[in-house]
Structures are given as C-alpha cells and as structure tokens.
C-alpha cells in the first residue's frame, strides 16, 4: 500500500472540492465519456455559458481538466486518464451510501 504524501493529500482535497459542487461533478462525469467544447457542455447540462466558464476555470485550477486550443475554439478533457477510471470506481461506491446521510438535512453529526 502506498504511503500518502502531501502531494496526494492536496490532490485528493482538490478532487473533493471539485466533487462538492453538482455542476462540477456533472462536468467531470461528462468529460469521462469524451472531450467537449464548453458550449456543448453548457447545453448538455442545462447551465449558462457563464456558469460553465466559471466551473471549467475551477476544474482547470484544481488540475482536473485541461483546455486544448482548436482554432478559435477550445475544448476540454480530463487532465489525467486515471481520473476517468477513478470516477467510475467512485460511482460504484455511491451505491452503498445511505442516501439520507450527509445531505442538507443530515443528522449524522
């Protein structure tokens, strides 16, 4: 088993921050399937282009996505291919989580 370093801790904290917002989570899950242009992502997720721009900037700042210039446009993809399989593994774990826990009305604390 690999020992966690400060780099690992920081990377997981950034991923946790990204996943704490539903729109950012949906972006990551969509990019898991294929790279996309921001306007296409905004349309697919039903958010404004401004919201998409802000969320992609956050994900870029966290090091989770990267932008690729394509002429006058830019498309986005996951920054590391391991992220796609990691997200898939996390989706498997969600099935075992109590849906009443850790939500807005959580009484776990």
TrEMBL record:
Q: Note one Pfam family from the annotation.
A: HTH_5
Q: In its UniProt record, which GO terms are filed under biological process?
A: response to cadmium ion; response to lead ion
**SUPFAM superfamilies, per the entry:** Winged helix' DNA-binding domain (SSF46785)
Task: List the GO molecular function terms.
Answer: cadmium ion sensor activity; DNA binding; DNA-binding transcription factor activity; lead ion binding
HTH arsR-type domain location, by residue?
4-98
Spell out the NCBIfam families in the cross-references.
Answer: HTH_metalloreg (NF033788)
Q: What is this protein called?
A: Transcriptional regulator
This chain's source organism reads Cellulomonas xylanilytica
């Amino acid at each position: 088993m690999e020992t966690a370093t400060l780099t690992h801790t920081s990377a997981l904290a950034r991923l946790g921050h990204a996943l704490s917002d539903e729109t950012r989570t949906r972006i990551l899950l969509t990019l898991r399937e294929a790279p996309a242009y921001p306007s296409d992502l905004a349309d697919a997720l039903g958010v404004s282009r401004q919201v998409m721009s802000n969320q992609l900037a956050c994900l870029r700042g966290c090091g989770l996505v990267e932008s690729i210039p394509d002429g006058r446009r830019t498309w986005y993809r996951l920054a590391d291919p391991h992220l796609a399989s990691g997200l898939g593994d996390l989706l498997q774990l969600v099935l075992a989580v109590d849906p009443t826990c850790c939500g807005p009305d959580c009484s776990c604390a």
